[in-house]
Amino acid sequence: MRYPKNMNEEGTKGKKPKHTFLSRFQTLFSNMTRKPVFKRTLAIFFVILALYALFNTFFQSYDSSAFDSATFPFNAASASSILLATGKSTVPAVKVYLYDLPRRFTYGVIHHHSLARGSRVDENDLSSLKYPGHQHMAEWYLFSDLARPDTERAGSPVVRVLDPDEADLFFVPFFSSLSLIVNPVRPPGSGSEKTAYVDEENQEALVEWLKRQKYWQRSKGRDHVIVASDPNAMYRVIDRVKNSVLLVSDFGRLRPDQGSLVKDVIVPYSHRIKTYTGDVGIDKRDTLLFFMGNRYRKEGGKIRDTLFQILETENDVIIKHGAQSRESRRAASQGMHTSKFCLHPAGDTPSACRLFDAIVSLCVPVIVSDSIELPFEDTIDYRKIAVFVETAPAIEPGYLVSILRGITPDRILEYQNELKEVKRYFEYDEPDGTVNEIWRQVSKKLPLIKLMVNREKRLFAKEADCSCICTNQTAIITL
After folding, report:
1. What's this model's pTM, rounded to 2 decimal places?
2. End-to-end CA distance of the chain
3. Family, per the entry (predicted)?
4. What is the dihedral of CA 327, 333, 334, 336, to 10 degrees?
C-alpha cells in the first residue's frame, strides 16, 4: 500500500536542506562524540565541574550577614554574636556583662587575705589592695581584663556591655580560689583556730545573691561564667552552680554531672617561675630530667613517692622535695632552665602548676598523669610539646629514663621550637595570651547554652536533665 505523499516532502524534493548554526553544531558534536578520546575528555571535564560545585557548597566560607533575615526567621543579632575561632572574623564579639558584686566577694577577699598576714591596708582604698600571687590567678586576670577600658581590649574575643539585657553571658567575679586560702594554715593548738573570715559562708552568700538576680533565674545560671580554678574552690555550693560555665584546672574533684568538657573550660595554672627568655638549644641544659615539688600527695599523686624512689639515684636526674616559697621558686627556675625534660606527675588531682612552669621554661614536659585534661586542646597538639608516659610502666625502674635518653638532640630541639610557638597561651600577662584564649573558649559554649535554655522553656514542670549532653564522659579514675 502506498502512503500518500507528504505535501512538505513533495514541495522540498530535490532541494538541499538549509543548515542553521544549531544543526551544524549538533552534527559536529555527534561526529566528535564518536571519538573515544573526546568521550574521555568530556567525562573528566564533568567530574571536575561536579567536584568544584561540591567544594563550593560544603567548604567555601561565607559571611552569614549576607543572608536576608526575612528568609531565615531567627534572631540574627543573637546568632552573629558567636565568635569564630580565627579571631579575625567580622562577626561581632560575644557580649559579656560583668556583675557588680558586693565588695565582700572581690576586694573584700583580698582585704581579708592581707589582714590574715598582718597587713593593715585601708579596705576603702582599692589601689592599696593588691591581689596576691599564687597558682590560681585566672579569676583576677579575667576580672581585670573586663574592668579595663575598651581601648585597651582591642582584639579580645569578647566585649563588655553595661546593659545586662544586651549580654550573651554573665561573668561572676568571685575570687573563689583566693577565698579558699585567705586563712593561713596554722598548726592545731596555736590559739588562732577562730578566724574572722570563713570561705564557706562567702560561698553560701554568693549563691543566695545570685538566686535573687533575674538573669540567673531566667537561665538557671546556664549563661553565667564562674571561675573555680583551684580544685577545691566552690566545693560547698558546686551542686547549686553546676549549670554555669565553670572555669576549672581539671575535673579531679568534680563528679561527672558537675563538670564536663562539653560545658566547661579547662584553664591553665598561673606559672610561678620566671619565663625563659633564651633561645632553643641543649648546650646549656646538662640535666636530663628535673622535678621539684611535694613528694607526698593524695589520690593519684601517690605515684610521686614511687617516682622519687626510682629516680633519685640516677646521675643525670634532679628530683627534690620542695614546698611553695620564694626560695623554692628560684631553685625551680634555675633547675627548669638548665634541664632538657621536666617531670609532671599527678598531684592531689591530675593537674599541677609544674606543667605550665615547664612550658614557659622550654623544658619538655614529661607527663605521667593518665587522667589529665589540658587547656586549649582544640588549638594545641600536646604531642608536639610533651612526652606522655603511662603511669604503670613509668614506675618500673629504668623505664622512664631509658625513654628520655633515647630521644635524639634534634627531636628535643623540635619540642623546644613547638614550646616557643605556644608558650604565649600560658602567659596571663601577654596581650594576646591566656586571657584572650580563655575568652575564646568560653565564647564557643554559647550555642550549647542557647540550646539548653530554649530546651528548658518547653519542658513540663521538671528540672531539665542534660546528662546526655553535658556529662563528662572522661570521668576521672583515681588510683
Report:
1. 0.77
2. 102
3. Belongs to the glycosyltransferase 47 family.
4. 140
